[in-house]
Amino acid sequence: MRVYLIVFYLTLIIWPALTAASSLPSFVDHPCADDYSELPQNITCGTLVVAENPNDKASSPVGLPVVVVKALQPVEDAAPVIFLHGGPGSHAVTNVRTMLTNARNKPLIARDQDWIFFDQRGGRRATPNLNCPDVEMTDAGPVAEQDVQALIACGHRFKAAGIDLNHYNALQSAADIQSLRKALGIGEYHLFGYSNGTRVALTTMDHYPDELVSVVVDSVWPREATWTEGTPTTLANAVRGIIKHCQLNQDCQQRYPELEAHVEALAKRFLAAPQAGSDGRLYPATALGAFLMDSGYAKQAISFLPQQLEQMYQGNYQVLESFELADYRSTGAHIAYLCHDEIGFESQAQVARNAGDDPIAQLAVKSLENYFDVCAAYGIKSGPAREALEVKSRIPTLFVSAEIDPGCPPEFAEATASHFENGQFVMVPNTTHGVFLESPCARSMVRQFLLNPKQPVDRACLAN
Fold first, then answer.
1. Per residue in 160-185, pLDDT tens?
2. CA 225 to the chain's CA centroid
3. How far is Cα 11 from Cα 134, in angstroms, rounded to an integer?
4. For residue 303, how many other CB atoms are within 10 A of its CB?
């Protein structure tokens, strides 16, 4: 039913929007695909239609769904906020209703200012949607060889359909933001980038600084970071951070006094050979790495992790048997962005070297190396050299990081903030990836900042 509804939406709403556009870029208003009737906000929808290749007048159109949420209690002259989802290859539009109905978001989203959500190129409701079905993937890469082959076959299908994957990346998304802003008649504006959306935000600041009042970046992924080369270390550091929290908690420490040694022994066991579950399946080291990567992003999952790791150390792999990887990416878009923005600047040989002899870090090596095989098959050109360099800016920017984050650790944000004359760095303890979703304190600081970006945010709530 879900697939049918998405196809119905694309057929009846986005496709007419694409064909109705007489010149590109353009914006076509249309009814919202989701039902917002019970919400108090005034919500309108449309599709931004842009050329896949802006430098080619004959290029195919690309449709980006847009949802505009008017502020409930608008502050006079407050510029709107454009929200940038993560991934890459994730989505924003399908989450709008949930974000607005969740009580924890009500003090922030579309309260003082209009908020604008859109799916970046290749996202779930974008046209084309670059999803590749039946692929298991985390931010540590395609899990198994069958996932690599499925992604490669999918890339060939995209090319056969006339899609040029060289135009799905952060640099192009930054240009799309300008098209969206102009189409909606927006002058000054704020950006809120989340996860890989922070990379799009930083790229926008670098190439299109005009009219930007301020930027909030939550769970920061800077341009100079290395996706494949650095992730073994960030994953291992996050796991050890969780273990440290367990050691500092009397009950957890008493239950699992040798947790770090057991986790390392568990990792070595998987690295030596795939482990058999009670379901008869063999689970390779990449499966354990994928489990740790996805679990490290979620606060609720982290609270169970010491117990689960101890169970696996004892030979009970039921947690892997029942574990389902997060399904939030259009996997082909994820690959297209990374091939252009990251992989072309990195070395496959360096991935294993950076993992060194750390068994936890080594769990992610093979899946991260898989990126290189897929990118080679996709044939996407890497971005300009500038896109791998650090960004420096005078635009007021709030850097928000979680204490534990296997993909976007706080040291990334702190280092990037040091290059910003008007940057503020905040690390929120006892939180994970996507701080504004987890922490009322973070939401309070973000709201303060968006209303007055030139003032230091009040950090008193961090004490709690």
1. 999 999 999 999 999 999 999 999 99
2. 14
3. 23
4. 12
